[in-house]
Amino acid sequence: MNATARTLQRARLLRWLAVALVLLASVGAVQWLQIQRLHGAADVKDDTVLLLGLPQLHAEYLELRSQWRAPAGPSRENDSLQQRYQRFVNRVELLEGPQGQRLLSRSPGLEQAARTLRDFVARADLYLGAHPRARLSEESHRALQQELEALDEPVRALAHDGAREAALQITQRHAAIDEHADVETALTLLLALGGLGMGLLLLRQRQQLDQRSAGVELLAQRLREARQESEAASQAKSAFLANMSHEIRTPFQGLLGMLALLRDTPLEPRQQEYLRTANEAADHLLSILNDILDMSKLESGTLALLSESVPLRALVAEVEQVMRPRAMAKGLALRVHVAPELPAAVEIDGTRLKQVLNKLMNNAIQFTDSGSVTLNVHLGNVSGTMECAVTDTGIGMDEYTLSRLFQRFVQPGGPRRQGGTGLGLEISRHLARLMGGDLLVQSSPGAGSSFTLVLPLVETQEPVEPEADERLPVAGLRVLVAEDHEINRRYLGALLDRLGHRARIVRNGVDAVQAVAEQRFDLVLMDLHMPVLDGAGATQAIRALPAAAGQVPIVALTADALPETRQRCLSAGMNDVLTKPVTLQQLAQVMRNQVRARNHACTSPEGGAAPAPAAPPVAALVDEAAAGAVAQVLTTPHYRSLAQRYLDDLAAQLPQLSAQVRSLQEALGAEAAEAAGVQVDLAAADEVRAQEPQMRSALRAAAHAAKGAALNLGLTGLAQAAMEVEKNASTAEPATLLEALQHWDALLPATREALQQCGLLEVTPGATV
Q: What residue ranges do the domains of the chain occupy?
C-alpha cells in the first residue's frame, strides 16, 4: 500500500471517529434531559403522596365532626376530642409543606379552602392544641362546632380536587415513564446501530490489516527466499572460486615450477630473455588470480586478518628487494626510508601490509616513465598512527580519475595502459580499513601521485627468529608424493631430487594409504583434490593405521587459497598446508619444520622425553578471589576436600573421554582405509559410528557439568578448557576434539600446583607437581 492510499484510509477513519463522537455526544445530551425529566417525575411523586393524603383529611374531618356533635358526657370527653382533633390537625399540616404550597398554588379555590381550615385550627388550638391555653366551655364548643360544620364543603373540595389532581399526576407520570422508555429504546437502538457500524468499520480495518499483514508476510517470505537464493549463489560462487583456484593453480604449479627449473639450466641470452618474459607473464597471471580471490573474500566478509609481531624494517626491506629490480629496469631511482623514531616491531598483519605496499609500489613504477619512486615510512600526523607514503614522479591523475580511483576496474593511468584487473586499489583500501586505517591519495596531471597508507601504530616486542638447526637432516628423507597432475608430479619429483630426498610418487589417495601401510616414510606430501580418494580421506585413513605409520607427518598441497580449506586440512589430521604454486624455498622450509617438530616431539636435547610445556601463570588457572570467597563460606578444609575430589574425578574421567573420541577417529579412518583397500575391522568401526550421537552428547554433558563445577570452585583455566570441549562436542572433527581434550588434561597438574601455591590444596608428601 502506497503513501497516498494510507493517507486516504487514515482520513476515512478519522471521519468515522468524528461521526462516532458526535453520536455519543448527542446520546449523552438526550440522556441528560431524560435524567432531568426523571427528577421532575420524582417531585411529582412527592405531590402525589400529598394528594393521596387529602382524602384522609376528609375522613379525619368527618370523625372529628362526629365526635364534636356527640352530647355532653363520657363520649365527648375533652381528652378523646383533643386526640381526634390532633389527628385532624396533622392532616391539615400536610398543606403547609412545599408540596402542599405547590399544590394549592395551582387552584385559587383550594387556596381559599386551606385558609379556612387554618383559621379554624388557629382558634381551636386555644382549647384543643398540644398546649391548651383555655378550657373548652359549652359556649366555645358550640361556636367552634358551627365553624367546624362550615368546613364540610372546603374539606370535601380539597379531597375531590386532590383525588382528581392525583389521578392526573399519576397519568402524567406514567406518560413520562412511557416516553422515557421510548427514548431509552431509541437510544439503545441508536447505540446498537452505532456499535454495529463501528464494529463493521473495525472488522473492515482488521481485514485490511490482515491483508497488509499477509502482504508483509508474503514480502518477508520472498525476502527470505531471496536471501536463501543469495546465500546459495554466494556458496556457489565460493565453490566456483575454490574450483577455479584449484583448476588454475594446479597447472600453474607445473608452469612456474618448470620455469624455475629451466632458469637453473644453461641458457643462451635469447633463451634467457624468453624465460624472463614467460616469468613476467606467469607472475602477472598469479597477481590477477590473487586479486580475484581477495575481492571475493572481501565481498563475502570471510577475509580474516592475522595480527602478529612484525619487524617493520625487515618487512620494508623485503618490499624494496622485490621492487628495486623493476625500478632499475625502467631507469627509475628507488628511495626507501624508515623513520628512526618508529619502533623495531609493530602489531599488524604483515602479509597484508606487504601486499598493500607491493601494490602501491608496483603501480608507482608502472605509471612512472622517468624520475623516481619513494617509500617513506614515518609517524603519522594523528597520534598513535604511522604512515607509509608512496610518491612518484609519474603521469599523475585528474580530478575525474581521482573521484573514481577506488572503484572496481578503474586504473590509475587510464584504461588498459599497462594491463591489470583494476581491483588492486580497491582491495588495498579495503585491507587498509580492515587493519583499522585508510588509504589516501593526492595527485595532479603531470605532477605525479602520492598514496598514503595510514595505520594504527601498536608497538610490540620484536619476534625472535628461531635458530636454524643445521644438525637436522636436509637430505636423504623418504618422501611420499600423492599428486594426480602429471606436470606437478614431475615438478615435485624434480624439487625433491634437487633437495637430495628420495621420492615415491602415487596418483591418488588409495595408493597413498597403501604405500604408507607398506613402507615407512619421513614425510607425505598430499594433494587435496585427487580421484578415487581425496587428500582429506586419505589422511584420515593413514591416521587409523598402526602407530608408526599413522603418525607420519602429512603436508597438504592444495590450490585452494581459502581459509576454510586450510582448516579442513588441519581438522582431517594434516600437519601443515602448502598453497600452490610451491617454490623450492617453501618446500625446503616446510620439510625442515616438520622434521624439527617430529624430533622435538620424540626426544629432548638430552635424548629423553620431550620437556613438558611451561605451565600457565596462576592467574590464568585460578581466580583467587572467587576461590577464596568459596573457601571462606565452606571453610578452607571443606574447600580443599571438594577441590581434591574434583581434580581426582576429572583425572579419571578425561582418559575415558579421550579413548571414546580416539575410537571415533579410528572408525572414520577405518572407513577411508577400507575404501583404499586396506584390511580393517569394518564391523567394529560401524558399531562405533552408530554410537557417535550418544558419545558426542555424553561428551557435551560431561564438559558442561565439569565447567559448572570448575566455575563454582574458581578454577577458571579448567572451566575455559571444558567450555571449549562443550562448544565443539557436537560438530568438530575427532582430531580437534582430541586436541581440546589433551589441552584440558594438561591443565590438571598445573591447576593442582596453582591451588597449592594459593594455599587452597594440601601438598601430598612425596608428590611431584
A: 3-188, 308-456, 478-602, 618-757
Place of cell 598453497: 579
Looking at the DSSP assignment, which residues form a beta bridge with residue 451? 390, 441
SS3 259: helix
Task: Enter the DSSP assignment of 545.
Answer: S
Residue among 457, 220, 276, 231 at smallest CA distance from 353: 457
* Cβ density class 729-751: b for 16+ within 10 Å, e for less: beebbbbbbbbbbeebbbbbebb
CB 588 within 8 A of CB 525: no
Q: Report H helices in 581-715.
A: 584-602, 618-621, 624-634, 636-675, 682-690, 692-713
pLDDT, residue 605, reads 46
DSSP 459: B
Specify the range with the lowest mean pLDDT, choosing from 75-79, 253-257, 292-296.
75-79
Return the pLDDT at 345: 92
Provide the pLDDT for residue 422.
Answer: 60
Q: Is 744 helix (H, G, I), strand (E, B) or coil?
A: helix
Q: For position 378, what pLDDT does the model report? A: 94
Q: Which of 251-260, 484-493, 530-539, 583-592 comes out lowest in average pLDDT?
A: 251-260
> What's the average model confidence in pLDDT over 50-59?
70
Cis peptide before 473 (omega within 30 of 0): no
Which is higher by pLDDT, 615 or 560?
560
User: Cα separations (Å) of 412 from 74, 188, 421?
Assistant: 146, 83, 12
Amino acid at 753: E
pTM for the model stands at 0.48
Residue 574, classified by CB atoms within 10 Å of its CB into exposed (0-12), middle (13-18) or buried (19+), is buried
The grid coordinates listed for 90 are 396533622
- pLDDT computed for residue 417 by the predictor: 46
Residue in the block written with cell 596462576: 618
Condensed to tens digits (0 to 9), the pLDDT of residues 353-377 reads: 998 999 999 989 988 989 999 999 9
Q: Can you name the residues that pair with 439 across neighbouring β-strands?
A: 453
pLDDT for res 606 = 44
3-state SS class at 451 = strand
Q: Residue for cell digits 588509504?
A: 439
> Treating both helix axes as pointing N-terminal to C-terminal, what angle do 424-434 and 350-366 enclose, rounded to 10 degrees?
150
- Between 360-374, 440-454, 457-471, 641-655, the lowest mean confidence (pLDDT) is in 457-471
d(CA 630, CA 624) in angstroms, rounded, equals 10
Q: Which three cell numbers stand for residue 225?
A: 527466499
Residue 377, CA distances (Å) to 357, 391, 688 in order: 11, 11, 59
Mean pLDDT of the chain: 79
Stretch (H or E) spanning 147: helix 138-150
Classify residue 582 by its DSSP letter.
P
SS3 23: helix
Domain 308-456 has CATH 3.30.565.10: yes
Residues 6 or more apart whose CB falls under 8 angstroms from that of 450 comprise 389, 390, 391, 392, 441, 442, 443
Topology of domain 478-602 in CATH is: Rossmann fold (3.40.50)
With CA atoms as reference, report the closest residue to 456 among 388, 361, 354.
388
> What residue type is assigned to position 502 of the chain?
R
Neighbours of 650 (CB within 10 A): 22
Query: In the structure grid, which three cell numbers stand for residue 300, read together?
Result: 563475502
C-alpha cell at 23: 453520536
Q: Is 3 or 137 the better-scoring residue by pLDDT?
A: 137
DSSP3 helix / strand / coil % (the chain, rounded to 5) = 65, 10, 25
Look at residues 615, 621, 628, 616 and name the one whose alpha carbon lies nearest to residue 710. 621
Burial classification of residue 543, based on how many CB atoms lie within 10 Å of its CB (0-12 exposed, 13-18 middle, 19 or more buried): buried
Are the CB atoms for 97 and 50 separated by under 8 Å? Answer: yes
Side chain identity at 373, as an amino acid letter?
A: V
224-to-160, 210, 215, 232, 499 alpha-carbon distances in Å: 92, 20, 14, 12, 56
How many CA atoms lie within 13 Å of 370's alpha carbon, on the beta-carbon side? 1
